[in-house]
Amino acid sequence: MKKKKFRFQWGAFLLLIFYGGLFFLLFARMVTIQVTGEAEGQALAARAAAKYNKESAITASRGNIYDHAGQIIAEDTLSYRLIAVVSDKATTNPKNPRHVVDAEKTAKILAQYIKMSEDTEQNEAQIYQRLSKRYRDDGKEVYQVEFGRAGRGLSHETMTKISEAKLPGILFISDLKRYYPNGIFASHLIGFALKEENKDGTFTTTGKMGLELTYNKELTGVDGKVQYDTDAFSYLLPNSEKMITPAKNGDDIYLTLDKTMESFLEEKMTEVEKEYSPESMTAIIADPKTGKILAMTQRPTFNPDTREGKDMKWLNEAIEETIEPGSTMKTFTLASAIDTGTWNPNEHYQSGSYTVFDRKIKDHNIYGWGWISYLEGFQRSSNTAMAHLLKRIGDDVFVDYLNRFGFGQKTGIDLPNEATGIILSQYPVQRVTTTYGQGSTVTPIQLIQAMTAIANDGKMMQPYVIDRIVDPLTGKVIQQHEPIEKGQPVSANTAKQVREILATTLTAEGGTAKNFVLDEYVVAGKTGTAEIPRAGGGYLSNQYLYSFLGMAPVDDPQLIMYVSVKKPKLKTGEQGSVPVSKIFNPVMLNSLKHLSISSEDTQQVTHATIQDFSGQSAEAVQVELMNDGLQPIIVGGGGQIIDQYPKGTQKLVKGSLVFLKTEGDSTLPDLTGWSLRNVLVFKTMANVAFEVVGEGFVASQSVSAGTVISDSSPIVVKLKTPAESFKQDVEAPSEGEVEQVEDQ
Predict the structure, then answer these.
(1) Residues paired with residue 204 on neighbouring β-strands, in sequence order
(2) CA–centroid distance for 727 within its chain
(3) What whole-number distance in Å separates Cα of residue 204 and Cα of residue 60?
(4) Reduced to 3 DSSP states, what percent helix, strand and coil does the chain have, rounded to the nearest 5?
(5) Which of 262, 92, 294, 88 is nearest to 182 (CA)?
(6) Strand 715-720 with 697-701, pairing
(7) Backbone angles phi, psi at 604, to 5 degrees
(8) Which has more pLDDT, 25 or 587?
(9) What is the distance between the alpha carbons of residues 662 and 611, in angstroms, rounded to a whole number?
(10) What CDD domains does the entry give (predicted)?
(11) Is 327 marked active-site?
(12) Cα–Cα distance measured from residue 278 to residue 565, given in angstroms and rounded to the nearest whole number
């Protein structure tokens, strides 16, 4: 048998080598990947996680802003953004269109719910124009359009109504919107926040003004996330673990504001703005015991939801803008004089004008009121009275007192961009004009802070608006703001005397604050009429900033309020204090009632009611009032009543004094135990010359009770504090010695 010759097959061998090599290369690659876990320099686990691990964001809510009682002022709420798909490429089935088919019909319906213009026809036209847009400025085709501010922040109710119209191509995207439910409400204080797009395409609500900006870090939350595994088609894999990082909502801020008081204030500010069309207005209410700001607003203002406002400044005028305070500054000049012992209310001076080198200071009525007492000068808001007082106080001492009251310095209130103002004191005339509030500048919040010292028995309290900051999840208080005493610029006795004298500006015959009398509470305060500086120097002609800085009740003030009205359009013969009083009076009255604060004359449980007794017999009314437990004081010779104090219908504590003014000479009553205010009321009504010595309550009088007052001889009335009343007066000076001391 013939053997077959072996033939080497090169083709088969080469194929074996080739495919064998490929196998070993593939095997080596697999082993390498298995060992290193990397391919092409990338971690395969990371690439798999990127492809199959999905992540979804959990949006954090911005912190809420509340008033002191927990009533909402600002919060995040669900809203909707309107989108219109205008490209026909979105529609795959003509029977079920997914783009705007009829732009005219769609615009007509949308115009009922969104406002791109206040004019109805123009609004519809602008919406139609937006829906008809097919190409962008760069020539690219437009797929969808939005409607700016008009199409954002839509409520659920509006979204539902538009959806019911079943308009093709109209879509809604849900979102969180910063919502201010009270509309125009302390807007310059609260500010506003807007959504801003981040680099990664997400949106964050960011504060742009006011507290929203200042406390943006505290209010802003941290978004959370959800991570989970999916298959190649993005379906959730069975039994896959979800990893959840919860969102941390922003902290909640509780303000010192009282929503009810703020509402009172906003309402009256709006009414006065409509009636008098002023250039601007500012108002603040504060608690003098703590420095808490209970209400704050200004005009013109804006709605933080829409950011719309006419002729408005985007700054908080109470904090960031300085003014010449006008005669409200006389309050602190008076306090300086009393505290230094240089105030003698019954000493006289020549009103009208006062010369400082080549400058002549004049009273607001130019000619003055003749030779009058310093008390009357203050009640009439005499500039020259302040000039004379400065000479007694001393320039350097007076400037030091202004520093003590915090003028020319920031109060430190927890709000941004606080201004300091400037106290002009380089030249003598500047120091004189500063005594009555001209030239030097302050902020309204500085006036409030300074007035806390007068209302709070000498203790000056720093104003603040943040009560506390709270973690909404745990309820833990992160920051708690406490009252801060800024010093004691004057003594408690000085503060009490200033309050008593401020109260007489409302009751005295020549008082400038008569428009601020309240029926149920005794108010103490000072009016201000400040000239408005011209940009190039000097002052505008017949253009004023009218203001009032007041407190109530006078014996234990619970509220301080500042109101200013700039350049109001007054009616013929109307005083500038009228529009100011139309804000101060109802707001102060309602706020005190809201706080259940009793007036000085209604502290007791037992009360008696008085009414307007004008035209009635004084003797008959006297018997009636005595039967009601009151103490009637007839001022004059008796007969028909021509005036009274207190005025109007109101409740009084039994035992309270009621003054009944009649014609004729008055008989001096027993003044023992009377307060300084009651003494001054009798003095004004009876037109009697009183010399008042001391402070507190009447301990003695130089003329016996029952004496008919028929000449102008001064009657010396000595007052003592309750503490002094317990001491034995072993070396009581004679009336002549008292007069000598007063003359020094």
Answers:
(1) 196
(2) 47
(3) 9
(4) 35, 25, 40
(5) 262
(6) antiparallel
(7) -85, 165
(8) 587
(9) 17
(10) PASTA_Pbp2x-like_2 (cd06575)
(11) yes
(12) 7
Which pLDDT does position 6 carry in this prediction?
A: 57
**Architecture, CATH, for domain 57-255:** Alpha-Beta Complex (3.90)
Q: Which of 650, 461, 688, 487 is nearest to 553 (CA)?
A: 650
Q: Which of 79, 187, 280, 327 is flagged as catalytic?
A: 327
Asked whether residue 202 carries a pLDDT value surpassing 70, the answer given is no
What per-residue confidence (pLDDT) applies to 566?
96
**Strand pairing class (348-350; 371-373):** antiparallel
How buried is residue 9: exposed, middle or buried, by Cβ count under 10 Å (0-12/13-18/19+)?
exposed
Torsion of Cα atoms, 572 then 642 then 658 then 587, to 10°: -10
Copy the structure tokens of residue 351.
């009103």
> Check: CATH 3.40.50.720 for 259-304+315-601?
no
pLDDT tens per residue, range 44-56: 444 554 454 555 5
SS3 281: strand
Residue 520 token pair: 């149920």
Q: Which of 499, 455, 495 is nearest to 339 (CA)?
A: 495
Instruction: Classify residue 218 by burial, with Cβ atoms within 10 Å: 0-12, 13-18, 19+.
Output: middle
> What are the pLDDT digits (tens) for 439-471?
999 999 999 999 999 999 999 999 999 999 999
- Report angle CA 651, 657, 660 to the nearest 5 degrees: 95
Tokens 């009084």 found at: 652
Both tokens assigned to 421: 């103002």
Q: Please state, in angstroms and rounded to a whole number, the distance separating the CA atoms of residues 253 and 367.
A: 55
Domain ranges of the chain: 10-52, 57-255, 259-304+315-601, 602-743
Cis peptide bond upstream of 300, omega within 30:
yes
**Helix (H, G, I), strand (E, B), or coil: what is residue 23?**
helix
Neighbours of 629 (CB within 10 A): 14
- Spatial separation of the C-alpha atoms in residues 579 and 628, rounded to whole Å: 37
Q: Identical fold at 57-255 and 259-304+315-601? A: no
**Which pair of structure tokens corresponds to residue 29?**
């690659």
Place of tokens 């691990």: 53
Task: Return the structure tokens found at 111.
Answer: 């115009």
Task: Let me know: does 554 contact 524? Beta carbons within 8 Å.
Answer: yes
